[in-house]
Amino acid sequence: MLNTYTSKADGDAPGAEPRKPRRTKRVLAAVAVAALVAGAAAFGSTLPDPKASEVYTSLAGEKASVESDRDAAKTDFGALKTKYDALEKGMAARESKVAARESAVGAAEAATKTADAAVKKREEAVTGAEKTKAANTIGDGTWTVGKDIAPGTYRASADVGSSCYWGIYATGSNGSNIIENDLPGGGRPTVALSGGQDFKSSRCGKWEKQ
Question: What pTM was estimated for this model as a whole?
């Protein structure tokens, strides 16, 4: 009678089940992988395209709108920035002009003050000279030298007429003690007066101290 059992491999324990061929396991694994691939392909082919959904379309539209608003805002900002820079430059130029005008006004004011001071000084000098001249100028009348007028040499300020008379007297003599007198009849006569004398002038005009 033929033996139906597969002969045992070397090393198998006595009474153990004989090993199944390894080829069977490989075939089963290949079949499982093929089934998984086929299933995945079938599942993937049935999934919807996310870009075709209303939500995706709505979000894409909102994104485009936001980007458009962003670009418009950038454009507006650029225009405003250009205007601001122009205004800033204009303000700087105007401030520079104002500063230049203020500097010119300050210089003009300083020059005016200097001129006013010079004019005042000249006026004071003229006034002082006029006062001095007035103090050293006498007309018709009797003058006591050293009291009414200062001693010195006096000269007629203009040509005298034929009726001009002048006299020098001793002070307090009431004209009785004549030191010197004259009827020049013309020209510009000159007299030398000293303390202790009276000087009388009639129709001779002004006398100025020299």
Answer: 0.43
